[in-house]
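#help-structures

NK: newbie question. if I give both the sequence and a SMILES, will the prediction place the ligand too? trying with S-adenosylmethionine
OV: yes, paste both and it writes out the complex. here, I ran yours:
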Amino acid sequence: MSSDIIKDDDLIFLILDEKRRWLVQVKSGANFHTHKGIIEFDDIIGKNFGSVVFSRPLNTQGYKFYVLKPLPSDYILHMTRKTQIIYPEDAGLILLYTGIGPGSIVIEAGCGSGALTCILGNFVRPNGHIYSFDISEKSLKRAKLNVSKANLDDIISIQSGDIITDDFQLDNVDAVVLDMATPWNAIEKILNYLKFSGTLVSFSPTIEQVKKTVSKMKDNKLVEINTYELIKRKIQVKENATRPEVRMIGHTGYLTFGRKIKNVKNPYRERKPKENEFIDLNDLPLRG
Ligand SMILES: C[S@@+](CC[C@H](N)C(=O)[O-])C[C@H]1O[C@@H](n2cnc3c(N)ncnc32)[C@H](O)[C@@H]1O
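OV: that's the protein plus ligand as structure tokens.
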């Protein structure tokens, strides 16, 4: 279990108000500058998550900030990022529909800024592992930084690699998570890494990508192929004005899932017997 006391190097979620909130790493002797004063990390270290801290100088600033333990969704929305990220609602479905959890071994491509990588890393703790690949040096650098900030270096390996063309020395993995432009080109190779019954999930912003991905999944005999789109609406709760917020994110992307199965031909249904034809069923498995 993680500690409730804030230590040097811990990641905290610092909140001033609805709009001003930051994911920051605590460093003893250092500080964090905001428009409402300076947060001294030494004022935070040793306190419990859930405490408050006042910005310095106290006589001219003295604003109250909440110090919370970051949630998985905070990794997504408040991490340093440059690539398009996966939103918390999509990450939630990925976790539930792949079964990624403590002990899972997962391949991810590409890692992008490492936001989803950190979420996956948090969920496979303490004995699982995320092998995350990307072809962009910039993405690899940013993701490594974010993974270190989240103190997940021993759970996540960020590596340079092309999931379409490279051969990774990995097998029997529980799940493969794809968030890249051409996922359909990676499917054939991915099946070499995935264990039977393991799940492949691909996130794509457009229907054109989904169609190509599903078609390739079918060609490669994956089963339980399903595509979803999630739309989340936030509700403003105010006296006499409780209603959905006016602005919302209208589209994040589509999630396509599929499972790997042993590809055995059905001896009973492969072809229709001819009239009066005898088929010897000895040594063949019985139809359930
Ligand atoms: C949209 S970003 C991923 C964002 C990531 N899910 C996040 O939460 O930050 C797509 C990434 O896929 C990488 N990529 C594209 N083709 C790839 C390939 N063949 N192998 C590995 N990574 C690839 C890109 O370099 C880019 O960093």
